[in-house]
Specification:
This protein is an alpha+beta fold and about 1050 residues long. Among the domains are: about 1-10 and about 120-250, Distorted Sandwich (Calcium-transporting ATPase, cytoplasmic transduction domain A), CATH 2.70.150; about 350-385 and about 630-795, HAD superfamily/HAD-like (Rossmann fold, 3-Layer(aba) Sandwich); about 390-615, Calcium-transporting ATPase, cytoplasmic domain N. The chain is built from 38 helices and 33 strands. It has a 9-stranded mixed β-sheet with strand order 14-33-32-31-15-27-30-29-28, sandwiched between helices. A 9-stranded antiparallel β-sheet has the order 17-16-26-25-24-23-22-21-20, with helices on both faces. A 6-stranded antiparallel β-sheet has the order 3-2-4-13-5-11, with no helix packed on it. It comes from Miscanthus lutarioriparius. One of its GO terms (molecular function) is ATPase-coupled intramembrane lipid transporter activity.
């Protein structure tokens, strides 16, 4: 579908949407119904709403409806308030953008309007540093050459300036004509592709002939970008409002379900099924007791037989359903959301993850998945800018078979190269000319006439700077010309065409015309496999292949340079085809590539450049630590295989030790590639755990494998701790992540550039590095950090602690709900199975919302072992990876504990207060007090590190319980009137509490003591080591404890599959048998 935009035509300006942007989720009128609808889409909220509605039926509810309606309303208010606040902030941001003042020009008259009043077809006039209000087709600038500079960081995260040029059709328009221009832009319907704009434009008479001019993304100014270093620019509005490319790119990311969340959902379903069984059993026996015994008891006032309603049989059943509904904790989601929000703030506030070099803090953009960081199994990392600094420096080069820089490792200071330049060696001069001209670099001249360069690629900047250091300096450049200064003399070149780099072509070229003699040249650079096969017949390229191989072995990034003369007739014919392909609105990219392919042939290869990109500080140590923690690390890069392997050796990804082996999956044919894959898989299967195996493959091999043998490759991926994948496209990086995810592994992808975004978004956890390639990866990621070395702290410290805390909070939430529910069930056997509640409505509501929710938040600050110990023994992460703290087994322990504690509380309460003098409210308060005492000791016992907030929350809440109930006992209108005063004055009450704690916690403490003594876990041993300050001489048993720890950690790694199955895939368990 096409859109026709008529410039300055009032009859068509209202055919498309206006420029009012709206990112709000709600309006004033739909907020309440829409928010309630979203809240009730969750199963748990639907469940509790049903329970709350049933409680409105007075003949079945055992307690006041407030016990459920109160917490439910509080939860809804908290969630709705957060949504309303976020949406209000979005509204304020939209309002500011919509009411921003913008200059519009029509019929030669400039007038100022609000940005939201712009319509498609209007001509917008911008000044320096203005934010671009909508998507414009550039038609004029203050620069005589029709160039302007834009900052696109807000759109794509790339910090370097981009050059935008006016279309050739409007190159000769004066300022007066720009205000009166008429024409039409033929463009596609709105889309979110910020890299592509395939359109055509025609201007109407009398300004210019009615000819068609192709438009590309380089002729546009996109919304949210800023105009820089340009006095003014004007453009035609083609996409406005939410139909701009920026607006089409907006949208809420799909929420990610963590492994812990998946387990919690399964446990919730299991408890729900258990609840249904309990309700049916109690309901059956309750009805049986009613009809055999209850009807005989006159004081129960059951209806006379025959007068009972038709639904009479379901009343007891529903009463038990309401009574047991608290088995599922109503506050668990709010509690976990609050805890996860605090986890995210811990990451934001971590000064040890602050990059002082770039002044960049760590940031958590996704507050819901912190615990997944502690369960990461595979890390897939980009290389350039992620493992390396992305600071490119030309170190070596090969020109016409001569190697420069081999002696001193610095080609720029090689005397032979300097002498060759001084003697005007023609091949060397052409080599430097290609380095200086074949690029998209923008030279910026400062007030003191010094020249600096802005480049979209660090490789291009390195080559242009190297050429400048060798006296071939690019001093100016616009849309049609470039000026070179060589040895003090200036040379002007006309830029005829640019054949842009794409990931498919892996090369770029420029067509230039020498200013003096008018010779037309094609200058090309690209990867060796993209350029060397296009060498002219008869040229010997073996020496260049050897140079590429040698530089790759040194870990250097290589590019080949070439050129050829073009006859004017050949160029004119090609230019005509190029123009036609550029004007095509269908498959434009493919057609342009075909035309470029026809020109980039018979090249004279000039030489090879070798650029160094040094490793970041701390990368080898970080990778070693992560691998010791049981995390498998893969490197995905677009570099050559040998370069990638050398970087892998330098950063401890692979080693040259005798027990290491690197398996190559490669070949020149499909058959050879598939055979090498099966051989690698066979070796992986039959190799012992002690041998460190890795495999390496390139993008072409991966393409063949995914087409013909994806299942075999998946099995190989599951067996491989390390892999080096080179010559990868952005799509292939994402495909590798998807393969590991499909096997049930929890993946983390980390990168720094726009080409890593797809991989980052595909992974369970995406981490972006705020690097020299910009912020695009960091903005698309769940977490952003300044350096790769901070990843170890993000995973081992924040991830592990978050998982441990979430495991406790979620299971404790079920424990405290099951505890009170089991007491209610036990009381049913003393109340004729009638579904009567032991606890009053106020006590139940306060128990769920206040008494038990606050103490559990102390775990947010808890650390089972210190950060130093975690870093010293990274293998402890295996416990988190395997889900050792949150699984059906651990939950059964909490379930059993809640049942045991319920029995203790109930029987001690009944034995102490079952005489006829005791009131029902006294019995209830004694049982509730026992629950509060037990939960305080449970939280205290599971707390490893005490801080003031923890002490305040646990025991302050304990004191608050008594103060609140003493106050309630002083209100005559309440059922609790005088109850707490009466109980606190009785020694039997305090003896009952002491007995409850002793009987309830005694066996639990004894069990843990003997387990830690005779069968300690690795965490127990590390805690013992910490308590002895790590001194082996401190205890005779400590050395044996250390040996035991080593055995446990080693055994965990070897026998990992015995107890671990992926939490994210039901089918992965069977897949792990390979």
């Amino acid at each position: 579908m096409k859109r026709f935009v008529y410039i300055n035509d009032d009859s068509c300006r209202y055919s498309y949407c206006g420029n009012r942007i709206s990112n709000t989720k709600y309006t004033l009128w739909n907020f309440l119904p829409k928010n309630l609808w979203e809240q009730f889409r969750r199963f748990m909220n639907q469940y509790f709403l049903l329970i709350a509605c049933l409680q409105l039926w007075s003949c079945i509810t055992p307690v006041s409806p407030a016990t459920t309606w109160g917490p439910l309303i509080i939860i809804f208010i908290v969630s709705a308030s957060k949504e309303a606040w976020d949406d209000y902030n979005r509204y304020l941001s939209d309002k500011k953008a919509n009411e921003r003042k913008i200059w519009l020009v029509k019929d030669g008259i400039h007038r100022q309007i609000k940005a939201q009043e712009i319509h498609v077809g209007d001509v917008v006039w911008l000044h320096e540093n203005d934010e671009i209000p909508c998507d414009l087709v550039l038609i004029g600038t203050s620069d005589p050459q029709g160039i302007c500079y834009v900052e696109t960081a807000a759109l794509d995260g790339e910090t370097d300036l981009k050059t935008r040029i006016i279309p050739t059709i409007s190159a000769n328009l004066s300022v007066e004509q720009l205000g009166k221009v008429k024409g039409v832009v033929e463009c596609p319907n709105p889309d979110n592709d910020i890299r592509r704009f395939d359109a055509n434009m025609r201007l109407f008479l009398p300004i210019i002939d009615n000819e068609k001019c192709p438009l590309t993304i380089n002729n546009t100014l996109l919304q949210s970008c800023y105009l820089r270093y340009t006095e003014w620019a004007c453009g035609v509005a083609v996409y406005t409002g939410n139909e701009t490319k920026s607006g089409m790119s907006r949208g809420a990311a799909e929420p990610k379900l963590t492994a812990a969340d998946a387990i919690i959902d399964k446990l919730t379903i299991a408890i729900f099924m258990f609840q249904i069984v309990v309700v049916l059993v109690l309901g059956y026996f309750g009805n049986a007791w009613k009809y055999t015994q209850g009807l005989k008891q006159w004081y129960l006032m059951y209806p006379v037989e025959g007068e009972a309603p038709w639904y009479d049989f379901s009343i007891i059943l529903l009463r038990f359903e309401l009574l047991c509904s608290i088995m599922i904790p109503i506050s668990i989601k709010v509690t976990l959301d609050l805890a996860k929000g605090v986890y995210a703030k811990f990451i934001d506030w971590d000064e040890q993850m602050f990059d002082w070099e770039t002044n960049t803090p760590a940031h958590s953009a996704n507050t819901a998945i912190s615990e997944d960081l502690g369960q990461v199994e595979y890390i897939l990392s980009d290389k350039t800018g992620t493992l390396t600094e992305n600071k490119m420096i030309l170190k070596r080069c090969c020109i016409s078979g001569t190697l420069y820089g081999n002696d001193n490792g610095d080609a720029l200071n090689d005397v032979r190269l300097v002498n060759a330049i001084s003697s005007n060696d023609p091949d060397v001069i052409k080599f430097l000319l290609v380095m200086a001209l074949c690029n998209t670099v923008v030279p910026i001249k400062s007030n003191d006439d010094t020249v600096s360069y802005k480049a979209q690629s660090q490789d291009e900047e390195a080559l242009v700077n190297a050429a400048a250091n060798l006296n071939m300096m690019l001093i100016s450049k616009d849309s049609s010309t470039a000026e070179i200064c060589f040895n003090g003399s200036k040379f002007r070149y006309e830029l005829l065409d640019i054949l842009e780099f794409t990931s498919d072509r892996k090369r770029m070229s420029v067509v230039v015309k020498e200013g003096q003699i008018g010779k037309i040249l094609l200058l090309s650079k690209g990867a060796d496999e993209a350029l060397l096969p296009r060498a002219c017949p008869g040229q010997q390229i073996q020496k260049y292949l050897e140079a590429v191989e040698m530089y790759s072995q040194l870990g250097l990034r290589t590019l080949c340079l070439g050129w050829r003369d073009l006859k004017e007739s050949e160029y004119k014919e090609w230019s005509k085809n190029f123009q036609e392909a550029s004007c095509s609105l269908d498959n434009r990219e493919f057609k342009i590539a075909e035309v470029c392919h026809s020109l980039e042939r018979d090249l004279h290869i000039l030489g090879v450049t070798a650029v160094e990109d040094r490793l970041q500080d701390g990368v080898p140590e970080t990778i070693k630590l992560l691998r010791n923690a049981g995390i498998n690390v893969w490197m995905l890069t677009g570099d050559k295989q040998n370069t990638a392997i050398q970087i892998g050796l330098l950063c401890n990804l692979i080693t040259s030790e005798p027990n290491s082996q690197l398996l190559s999956i490669s070949g020149k044919t499909e058959e050879v590639i598939l055979r090498s894959l099966e051989r690698a898989l066979l070796i992986m299967k039959n190799t012992s755990e002690t041998k460190d195996l890795a495999f390496v493959l390139d993008g072409w091999a991966l393409e063949i494998i995914l087409k013909h043998s994806k299942e075999s490759f998946t099995r190989l991926a599951m067996l491989s701790k390390t892999a080096i994948c080179c010559r990868m496209t952005p799509l292939q990086k994402a495909q590798l992540v998807a393969i590991l995810k499909s096997a049930g592994y929890l993946t983390l992808a980390i990168g720094d550039g726009g080409n890593d975004v797809r991989m980052i978004q595909e992974a369970n956890i995406g981490v972006g590095i705020s690097g020299r390639e910009g912020l695009q990866a960091a903005r698309a990621a769940d977490y952003s950090i300044g350096k790769f070395k901070f990843l170890k702290r993000l995973i081992l410290i924040h991830g592990r602690y978050s998982y441990n805390r979430t495991a406790f909070i979620s299971q404790y939430s079920f424990y405290k709900s099951l505890l009170i529910c089991f007491i209610q069930i036990l009381f049913a056997f003393l109340s004729g199975l009638s579904g009567t509640s032991l606890f009053n409505s106020i006590s139940l509501m306060a128990y769920n919302v206040f008494y038990t929710s606050l103490p559990v938040m102390t775990i947010i600050f808890d650390k089972d072992i210190s950060e130093t110990t975690v870093m010293q023994y990274p293998q402890i992460l295996l416990h988190s990876q395997a889900g050792r703290l949150l699984n059906p087994t651990t939950f059964c322990g909490w379930f059993g504990c809640s049942l045991y504690h319920a029995l203790v509380v109930f029987f001690i309460t009944i034995c102490a207060y079952s005489d006829e003098k005791s009131e029902m409210q006294e019995l209830s308060m004694v049982a509730l007090s026992g629950c509060i005492w037990l939960q305080a000791f449970v939280v205290t016992m599971d707390t490893n590190s005490f801080t003031y907030p923890q002490i305040l929350l646990i025991w302050g809440n304990f004191v608050a319980f008594y103060m609140i109930n003493l106050i309630l006992s002083a209100i005559p209108s309440l059922q609790l009137y005088t109850i707490m005063f009466h109980l606190c004055s009785q020694p039997s009450y305090w003896i009952s509490m002491a007995l409850t704690v002793a009987v309830g916690m005694g066996p639990v403490v004894a069990f843990r003591y003997f387990k830690n003594l005779y069968q300690p876990s690795a965490i127990n041993i590390l805690q013992q080591i910490e308590q002895s300050n790590g001194s082996i001489q401190a205890s005779g048993n400590l050395e044996s404890a250390r040996a035991n720890l080593t055995n446990l950690l080693t055994g965990s790694r070897k026998n990992r599959d015995c107890y671990y199955h992926p939490l994210l895939s039901d089918s992965a368990e069977s897949a792990r048998t390979y």
